[in-house]
Amino acid sequence: MQLENPTIAERLAESLFDRMDRMLAEAEPAIEIADIARVLSVGNGIARIAGFPDLCADELVTFAGGGIGIASSLAADRVGVIVLGGTERIRPGDKVHRMRRIVDTPVGAALLGRVVDPLGHPLDGGGPVRSHERAPVERTAPPIMRRAPVCAPLQTGITAIDAAVPIGRGQRELIIGDRQSGKTSIAIDAILNQKQSGVISVYCAIGQRASAVARVIDTLRRAGALDRSIVVVASGDDAPGLQFIAPYAATTMAEHFMDEGRDVLIVYDDLTRHARAYRELSLLLRRPPGREAYPGDIFYIHSRLLERSTRLREEHGGGSLTALPVIETQAQNISAFIPTNLISITDGQIYLSPELFEKGQLPAIDIGTSVSRVGGKAQLPAFRAVAGDLRLHYAQFEELETFARFGTQIDAETRNRLNRGRRVREVLKQPEHVPLDVPAQIAVLLAATEGLFDTIPADRVAEAGRRAAKAVRDACPDLCAGIEGGAELDSADRDALMTAVDTAVADLRTEAESGNAVA
């Protein structure tokens, strides 16, 4: 088709050419240098790439098909990359770009009340995390000269722990036991008990079922504890790489508050699955296996994580990070490779016995096997005065009870000791997610060890304990405040507590004595 007016066409063409000439004259060519590698192979959460001669360890890379990874196994001709996510969209031959930064995660107050993955992506449907700060998930532990002695207690609200296996702020206390023995319940109770203490809590779920994590989140939300907590989730359905970095990312989130001078409690649930995820990655990266097929650096993997938990000196902020790592044993074998590693790294362990669990002794804490190497020094003075000899007396009672099963003739003194020991055991029983404050625990323990519950039937000791706890709070509020503030417990205070408890359980004791008289 020919134009009717060629003069106009010529003018338009000339104008267009002039404009293109000006644009070309004004354009300044920019040279962009980029490191690009290629995927050699991919599968099972691991990708092997080639083309980066100077890639750093733990540096992030991005794949053209989507997803990111961590450079882990560096070699001259290829690099093993841990993929943080699915590998379905990554194909051999795809381009790989460097991000020129190591793996990091968001930190700050914006994370409180949120459920996120190790990279800070929200999992609770609450929108993006509004945090402007990020920090590397790997960080050197505080040097020894910045650390302060553990001198403040971290109350869990569980009488058996606070009395016999106390935990201090800045301590690392291992929770160990077989599957389905109540390990997570103890950790969650410790978080719930921080509602009035000002301690921030971080719960890190590693390799757990989604349903189990959902129950934990629901428990925290219903108890009003989620608003001062962070939940980091790398479920069993996630990539092993996410499970591996999850505890490190959670620790980085917690350290942010510790550096601000605040006290933080972190729960790793559990490090057995973390070790298995790292074993899987190591074997896929062709690293030589060691004992139980775990890589040789598995001890270092956990020690560099737990060494970050400490209490800082006042000139460095005075904050603390208390760790409660959870570990699962098989057939009560605490001498297996991973349990012995973690026992040697931590400052004590809370051992949960399947036999006690089956007998209904909940929480199923074996006081004889459990130990705290630090927390006793941080125990409140009033608590130390009441529960100082509890471990010894309870161990003697259990041994005496074992021997008493073989004989029929028991003298009166032995019978009284067994009777009192059974009452103390009943006092140490505690419902799930019902933490007790310190004055209530002291009052109940004092009443049980001093014999106020001796004539009350064992099946009604729990009711007597509830009455005693309420009576002390109502009758001695000033004394309770002093106990929580660290005051000593003198003889007058002990008498006041005993009087309040005696009044509260008088009718139960009268009913028991009248029933015995009739019988």
From TrEMBL:
<feature type="site" description="Required for activity">
    <location>
        <position position="370"/>
    </location>
</feature>
<dbReference type="InterPro" id="IPR036121">
    <property type="entry name" value="ATPase_F1/V1/A1_a/bsu_N_sf"/>
</dbReference>
<dbReference type="InterPro" id="IPR005294">
    <property type="entry name" value="ATP_synth_F1_asu"/>
</dbReference>
<keyword id="KW-0406">Ion transport</keyword>
<dbReference type="InterPro" id="IPR020003">
    <property type="entry name" value="ATPase_a/bsu_AS"/>
</dbReference>
<keyword id="KW-1003">Cell membrane</keyword>
<comment type="similarity">
    <text>Belongs to the ATPase alpha/beta chains family.</text>
</comment>
<keyword id="KW-1278">Translocase</keyword>
<dbReference type="InterPro" id="IPR033732">
    <property type="entry name" value="ATP_synth_F1_a_nt-bd_dom"/>
</dbReference>
<keyword id="KW-0547">Nucleotide-binding</keyword>
<feature type="domain" description="ATPase F1/V1/A1 complex alpha/beta subunit N-terminal">
    <location>
        <begin position="38"/>
        <end position="98"/>
    </location>
</feature>
<dbReference type="InterPro" id="IPR000793">
    <property type="entry name" value="ATP_synth_asu_C"/>
</dbReference>
<comment type="subunit">
    <text>F-type ATPases have 2 components, CF(1) - the catalytic core - and CF(0) - the membrane proton channel. CF(1) has five subunits: alpha(3), beta(3), gamma(1), delta(1), epsilon(1). CF(0) has four main subunits: a(1), b(1), b'(1) and c(9-12).</text>
</comment>
<dbReference type="InterPro" id="IPR017710">
    <property type="entry name" value="Alt_ATP_synth_F1_asu"/>
</dbReference>
<feature type="domain" description="ATP synthase alpha subunit C-terminal">
    <location>
        <begin position="379"/>
        <end position="502"/>
    </location>
</feature>
<dbReference type="Pfam" id="PF00306">
    <property type="entry name" value="ATP-synt_ab_C"/>
</dbReference>
<protein>
    <recommendedName>
        <fullName>ATP synthase subunit alpha</fullName>
        <ecNumber>7.1.2.2</ecNumber>
    </recommendedName>
</protein>
<dbReference type="InterPro" id="IPR004100">
    <property type="entry name" value="ATPase_F1/V1/A1_a/bsu_N"/>
</dbReference>
<keyword id="KW-0139">CF(1)</keyword>
<dbReference type="InterPro" id="IPR038376">
    <property type="entry name" value="ATP_synth_asu_C_sf"/>
</dbReference>
<dbReference type="InterPro" id="IPR027417">
    <property type="entry name" value="P-loop_NTPase"/>
</dbReference>
<keyword id="KW-0066">ATP synthesis</keyword>
<dbReference type="InterPro" id="IPR000194">
    <property type="entry name" value="ATPase_F1/V1/A1_a/bsu_nucl-bd"/>
</dbReference>
<keyword id="KW-0067">ATP-binding</keyword>
<dbReference type="Pfam" id="PF02874">
    <property type="entry name" value="ATP-synt_ab_N"/>
</dbReference>
<feature type="domain" description="ATPase F1/V1/A1 complex alpha/beta subunit nucleotide-binding">
    <location>
        <begin position="157"/>
        <end position="372"/>
    </location>
</feature>
<dbReference type="InterPro" id="IPR023366">
    <property type="entry name" value="ATP_synth_asu-like_sf"/>
</dbReference>
<keyword id="KW-0813">Transport</keyword>
<keyword id="KW-0472">Membrane</keyword>
<comment type="function">
    <text>Produces ATP from ADP in the presence of a proton gradient across the membrane. The alpha chain is a regulatory subunit.</text>
</comment>
<dbReference type="Pfam" id="PF00006">
    <property type="entry name" value="ATP-synt_ab"/>
</dbReference>
<keyword id="KW-0375">Hydrogen ion transport</keyword>
